[in-house]
Write a structure and sequence with these properties.
Elements (H helix, E strand, L loop, with lengths): L5 E6 L6 H12 L2 E4 H14 L7 H10 L2 E3 L8 E3 L2 E2 L7 H11 L2 H19 L3 E5 L3 H5 L5 E6 L2 H14 L6 H15 L13 E4 L5 H13 L20
Amino acid sequence: MPPRPVTIAIDGPSGSGKSSVSRAVAGRLGLRYLDTGAMFRAVTWWCLSRGMDLGDRDLVAEAADSIRLRMGTDPQDPSVEVDGERVDRPLRTAQISAQVSQVATNPQVRRILAAQQRRIIDQARGDGGIVVEGRDITTVIAPDAEHRVLLSASEEARLRRRAAELQAGGETQKAVQLRDQVLRRDRDDSTVSSFQAPAPGVHGIDTSSLTFEESVAAVIAVVETPGETAETRPHTEDPDEPAP
């Protein structure tokens, strides 16, 4: 077990396994869990359900600032509530996945949600710690995390995992549509995040040929291996500024 309190920050592109692996790591280490990507999905869902134009950045930012967003951090049952309504399942549809990047690349929304994410991380440290995953977590949101990990995977592996995720949710997509969705999200998200190579002080793990259990074990091994501390590692970004 890592010393308490502890923050474990995990980044990576779509399909790298960061959500499922992060949740499992949190459960096994007895930590809280935060999926920051679900926060952007929640704002996307709220705006689309009201017919809002996601291209209107100011209007979407107003929505992000006004909705009551509650993130449950129990890794056994991570929940998302918007204005008192639990919306976990609607957030994982292909429709949301296809449009969430418009919200995730909105600098105003990122600034608003970044503040909320940092508050959740601070609160969780009083409960032992947290595993937090999503874009820019290792460099912008939690650069002082005790452990920072970048998960990566081959294009083939990521497409296969995304197809399995959709199937588990009762959805299917043609291969060409799935490929466009996953790779386009990578291109879109690259405007606010760099996950092509680990930043200084971030541990890289390629999960392409790893099973789920092996991926979880690899992250836990990083956490349990003595190494650099947050005080001695270099920072690559200003933690108070969202990525451009």
